[in-house]
């Protein structure tokens, strides 16, 4: 019996990497994308192969439509697509709204919204004819919290993906597809360092009702549950993985 196929964007580290290894453990074959961290992607692929998965890795900046086409060429070569974990995303350094530039906003929305929407659309085109498939968009608690004086632009992109999740889920529910969003809170990953503040999660942990940060594995467990038949009546909403925040 063939293994189901899952595409994970942004899988070289953090939440994407944790989702990849857990998906391999749960019986999925994988197509994994990365933008710049080839060594990280190769390490994740090797870990997944050790768990029995067939893995293809593809370099892709999801802000580039041609790169998305390359990703789905690899998906089509690997077999019918059963699941998408739409995870690729970026964050900028902490600044106020008055300091935002057009270039920063353009890049933020090209990757986090436009690219993610195009990836989801390409997945739907492959899932709908089979009337089978699950998409999980990785958004953020920032969509609710706003991230004032830090990442308002990032928060806005994730809010856009929350409502996109609802709209897409309603479009495809009648064809047997499910679409969900998972919104992580303060998770210990490298994204904080990429935003220029590597200690951010630990510093803000006191704001979390559970009084701790989360980890990528906890997010991955939630995502893989949503991909499973145990979540067969769950679609169109945002599941917060935030420690109550």
From TrEMBL:
Q: Which domain of life is it from?
A: Bacteria
Query: Which Gene3D superfamilies does the protein's record reference?
Result: NAD(P)-binding Rossmann-like Domain
Known EC number(s)?
1.1.1.47
EC category: oxidoreductase
- Please indicate if the UniProt record lists Protein transport as a keyword: no
UniProt signal peptide:
none
Instruction: Tell me any Pfam family this protein matches.
Output: adh_short_C2
Listed A to Z, the keywords are:
Oxidoreductase
A molecular function annotated in GO for this UniProt entry is:
glucose 1-dehydrogenase [NAD(P)+] activity
Coiled-coil stretches are none
Note the InterPro entries from the entry: NAD(P)-bd_dom_sf, Sc_DH/Rdtase_CS, SDR_fam
Family to which the UniProt record says this protein belongs: Belongs to the short-chain dehydrogenases/reductases (SDR) family.
Q: Which PANTHER family match?
A: OXIDOREDUCTASE, SHORT-CHAIN DEHYDROGENASE/REDUCTASE FAMILY (AFU_ORTHOLOGUE AFUA_5G02870) (PTHR43639), SHORT-CHAIN DEHYDROGENASE_REDUCTASE FAMILY PROTEIN (PTHR43639:SF1)
Its name, as the record gives it, is Glucose 1-dehydrogenase
User: What organism does this protein naturally occur in?
Assistant: Sulfitobacter undariae
């Amino acid at each position: 019996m063939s293994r189901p196929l899952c595409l994970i964007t942004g899988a070289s580290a953090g939440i994407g990497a944790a989702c990849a290894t857990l998906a391999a453990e749960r019986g999925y074959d994988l197509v994994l994308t990365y933008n710049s961290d080839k060594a990280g992607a190769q390490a994740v692929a090797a870990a997944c192969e050790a768990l029995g998965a067939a893995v293809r890795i593809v370099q892709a900046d999801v802000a580039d439509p041609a790169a998305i086409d390359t990703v789905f060429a690899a998906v089509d070569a690997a077999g019918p697509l059963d699941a998408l974990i739409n995870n690729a995303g970026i964050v900028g350094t902490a600044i106020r709204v008055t300091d935002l530039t057009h270039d920063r906003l353009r890049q933020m929305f090209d990757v986090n919204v436009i690219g993610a929407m195009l990836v989801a659309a390409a997945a739907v085109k492959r899932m709908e004819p089979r009337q089978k498939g699950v998409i999980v968009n990785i958004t953020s608690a920032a969509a609710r919290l706003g991230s004032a004086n830090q990442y308002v632009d990032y928060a806005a992109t994730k809010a856009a993906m929350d409502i996109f999740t609802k709209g897409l889920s309603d479009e495809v529910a009648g064809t047997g597809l499910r679409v969900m969003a998972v919104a992580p809170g303060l998770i210990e990953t490298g994204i904080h360092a990429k935003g220029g503040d590597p200690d951010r999660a630990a510093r803000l942990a006191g704001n979390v009702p559970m009084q701790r940060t989360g980890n990528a594995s906890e997010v991955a467990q939630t995502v893989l549950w949503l991909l499973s038949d145990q979540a067969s009546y769950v679609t169109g909403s945002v599941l917060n993985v935030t420690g109550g925040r």
